[in-house]
Amino acid sequence: MRSTWSAPVLALCLLSGCRDNAAPAIRIDLGPTPADELTLVPKASLAELIEVSPTETALLLTLSSAERTCEALAETEPNAPGVAIRLLLPAGQELKPGSFPLVQDTQSPDKPRVLSTVKLNGRRTELRPGGDLTISQVDATPQGSVEGLLKFEFTGDAEHPATRVSGHFLAHFCRINRIR
After folding, report:
1. Residue 77 confidence class, pLDDT cut points 50, 70, 90
2. How many CB atoms lie within 10 A of CB 53?
3. What is the CA radius of gyration of the chain?
4. pTM, 2 dp
5. 56/77 Cα distance (integer angstroms)
């Protein structure tokens, strides 16, 4: 015999969205071996918006398997897997939704560009050009966040293996520094 409270509890659970509140997973594939692959579920998803100079603004995103807070930005677990993304915006461009290409640092300094590094198995790998960062929502306030999609992909060549980093993210702003 079923108890009379099971239906209301089930309904409440469905309405409240009983689910894991974990961050979206990021798929990392840095090479041909299983040790080069990981599905990262970030414990920390942090954002910083910094006006570096009058001619450049940077959005820094840190997605890490290590627990970190805005007060303790320094790494506490040196071998913790993670993804670091830097979106560089030239003078006069504000952070807003859009797609930004992953390029080499020397390409197009007058256009928005993305650079990214992945830490996996204790080593850092600078991602080669290919793919993009898509920002879908931005609330550039101290309590705000930035949300989007990583679609970084390098098809490989004779000297470098194919790489891919993909997945949705939601990062909360820790720091917004404006020089104006």
Report:
1. confident
2. 10
3. 19
4. 0.83
5. 31
**Which residue's entry shows tokens 């970084």?**
152
At residue 22, the pLDDT reads 60
- Positive or negative, the CA dihedral 38, 42, 47, 53 is negative
How much is the pLDDT for 94? 87
- E strand or H helix at 80: none
Positive or negative: CA dihedral 88, 91, 94, 97: negative
| Chain center to CA of 80 | 15
Nearest to 115 by CA among 127, 125, 97, 124: 127
CA distances from 24 to 68, 76, 173 (A): 17, 22, 17
Residue with tokens 């859009």: 98
Instruction: Please name the residue ranges forming H helices in the chain.
Output: 6-16
Which residues, in sequence order, are CB contacts of 99 under 8 Å at separation 6+? 132, 133, 134, 135
- If one counts every other C-beta atom within 10 angstroms of the C-beta of residue 45, the result is 21
Contact 135, 96 (CB under 8 A): yes
